[in-house]
Amino acid sequence: MYLLEAVGLSKVYGREGRGFTPALQRVAAVNHLSLRLKPHENLGLVGESGSGKSTLARLLLGLERPSSGRVLYQGTDFTAWSLSEMRRIRDKLQVVFQNSLASFNPMFTVEQIIGEPLRNYGMGNARVRRERVAETLELVGLEGRYMYRYPHELSGGQQQRIGIARAIALRPELIICDEPFSSLDASLRMQMTNLLQELKAQLGLAYIFITHDLSVVSRFCDRVAVMQQGQIVEEQSGVGLMKQAVHPYTKRLIASVPVQDPRLRKTEDRK
Ligand SMILES: Nc1ncnc2c1ncn2[C@@H]1O[C@H](COP(=O)(O)OP(=O)(O)O)[C@@H](O)[C@H]1O
Ligand SMILES: [Mg+2]
Question: Which part of the chain is the ABC transporter domain (predicted)?
Answer without folding.
Answer: 4-254
